[in-house]
# Entry
Amino acid sequence: SDTLNNIVPQPAPSITKITVENNFPVLHWEASKNPEVTAYAIYSITNNYNVPIDTVLGRNSTTYTKLDHNATDSVAVYKIRSIEYCEDPKGLYSNITPPYNTIKVNRSDENVCKRSVILDWNGYNNQTLGVLGYKIEYSEDAGNTYIEKEILADTVRKYDFIGLKPQAATCIRIQAILPNQDSSLSNVICVFSQGLIPVENHYIQNITVNSDNVSMEYIPDPNVTIGEIVLERSTTGDQFTVLANGVSIAKDDIGDFYNIKDFSALTGSSNYFYRVSVRDECSNKYSTLPAKTILAEGKNLGLNNEFEWDYSEIDSNNILAYDIYRVIENDTTL
# Structure
């Protein structure tokens, strides 16, 4: 019987996408509905020639994974055709699909101070369907979960990825957004950032008004190497000025903090807001929350004294109470 030996070539299979999974190229297509089809031939492109590389058995097969091709090394380009039960002895083969290619993303060396890398990639070839855009995704848990960074236009091929997690690995991939509500993934690249850890946990404590200076303790972030420390002062708490003169900043001999004194303050006539600003090795500036001195005023009313003061503020801490002391010569009484 020649029932299954149709002299009309089979139409080319319908490729739905080519993507990358676990850094291997994976080709997806729709299964043929024709019983004459028993398998699918996979081709790569070498010097503009179709080179058969593998055969996938079964008419209902719909995927092919090239396990010996690392998608990080090069772009994968594949075609596919159907194989009939009775191939024509004169070489009448079924039609072959156009080429589909994977997305290969590359990166530059890290800009340590920006904690960034420049990404570039080739365009995804989706033939007549086109691509709606490219989504940048990243993972900070070894690829278990991915977070959207940004969606770019379909013509974009380069992106400055800023904000790598410092002293940790960030894995990045590109996702081509397809019109059929599907997507094609690129290879995954992982970057261990050598960027500096930002200053986060630093503050002022124990700010005190003395007779000739204002003193305070600065607690630095123990996880960061500090390149520069300056004291800044304000009378309103809005605009701060760096104090270049009349300031003493010294590392404590015992504790892990700095003793800071401002000898230029008019302690008897004004209150001040202070903050400490530091710069890391990349000249990034970080400032503490403000700490404010207390200005006390009093007057004699004959039989008693009236005493008042303004509010205190120190690193947004809640003030629980104010203790009032009376000083007579060298005797201090609460």
In short: The longest strand covers residues 37-46. The mean pLDDT is 90.
